[in-house]
């Protein structure tokens, strides 16, 4: 059976029990997959394009891929981190890494789709602000240069958070009061990582936006 690979960071990755209720959107995507496909989620916490190439994550997945597979590539959350393991420049090394990954998968006969990073819940004076700098635009430019399908998850999730509202959108993220979850007795104020409601909403957005390209791995509407 063909596989759909997900390459990404903690926003898409599968979580351990000790992290619950944190949930990656990739964990919720199986319901949108054709029954003739296998979901292979290779997203891992803390990853950037630089790190997945340097530590071998990407190449292990590449060796497991085969002609007829497909891959969703979503990075951008950790590219701006200034440590040597992860940092990339949006207009040079980030684009180069995306190009290399797409070309390597393409040589294996894998169809590639780019996804810009999902938004953080970052409100300033009641206004939702983008925290990803030039990385989404750099990915869009790369997709255009390579003729690779792209969905703008940054815009889509910003629209979702904005429409939901500053307070109500906390339910999408790991932002909650004390004594609600056993793993977080003191609560949490994390506006990057998702709870189940947010992961399900993001997975639904990915599905609805991918449909325009009519990929073979999606269930029929």
Descriptive notes:
By secondary structure, this protein is α/β, with parallel strands linked by helices. The protein has one domain: SGNH hydrolase (Rossmann fold, 3-Layer(aba) Sandwich), CATH 3.40.50.1110. It has six helices and nine strands. A five-stranded parallel β-sheet has the order 2-1-3-4-7. Strands 5-6 form a two-stranded antiparallel sheet. The longest helix is centred in the middle third of the chain and has 15 residues. The mean pLDDT is 97.
Question: Could you provide a short overview of the structure?
Answer:
This protein is 31% helix and 16% strand.
Count of all domains: 1
Fourth CATH level, the homologous superfamily: SGNH hydrolase
Averaged pLDDT, please?
97
Shape: globular
- CATH class term: Alpha Beta
Q: What's the tally of helices?
A: 6
Oligomer: single chain
Relative helix content: 25-40%
Give the uncertain stretches in residue-range form: none
Tell me the Rg in angstroms. 17 Å
Give the name of the CATH architecture: 3-Layer(aba) Sandwich
Distance separating the two termini:
21 Å
Q: Could you give the count of β-strands?
A: 9
Helices and strands, in order, run as EEHHEHEEEHEHEEH
* Lateral strand order in the biggest sheet: 2-1-3-4-7
**Approximately what portion of the residues adopt beta-strand conformation?**
15-25%
The name of the CATH topology is Rossmann fold
Structural class: alpha/beta
Instruction: Report the major sheet.
Output: 5 strands, parallel
């Amino acid at each position: 059976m063909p596989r759909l690979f997900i390459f990404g960071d903690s926003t898409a990755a599968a979580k351990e029990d000790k992290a619950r209720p944190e949930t990656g959107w990739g964990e919720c995507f199986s319901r949108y997959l054709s029954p003739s496909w296998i979901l292979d989620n290779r997203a891992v916490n803390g990853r950037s394009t630089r790190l997945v190439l340097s530590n071998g994550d990407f190449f292990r997945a590449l060796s497991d891929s085969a002609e007829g597979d497909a891959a969703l590539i979503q990075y951008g959350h950790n590219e701006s981190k200034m440590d040597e393991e992860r940092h990339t420049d949006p207009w040079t090394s980030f684009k180069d890494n995306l190009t290399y990954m797409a070309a390597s998968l393409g040589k294996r006969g894998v169809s590639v789709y780019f996804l810009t990073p999902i938004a953080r819940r970052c409100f300033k004076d009641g206004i939702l602000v983008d925290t990803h700098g030039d990385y989404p635009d750099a990915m869009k430019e790369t997709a255009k240069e390579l003729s690779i399908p792209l969905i703008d998850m940054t815009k889509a999730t910003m629209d979702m958070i904005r429409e939901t509202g500053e307070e109500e959108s906390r339910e999408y993220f790991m932002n909650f009061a004390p004594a609600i979850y056993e793993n977080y007795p003191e609560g949490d104020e994390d506006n990057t990582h998702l709870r189940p409601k947010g992961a399900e909403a993001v997975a639904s957005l990915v599905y609805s936006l991918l449909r325009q390209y009519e990929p073979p791995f999606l269930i029929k509407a």
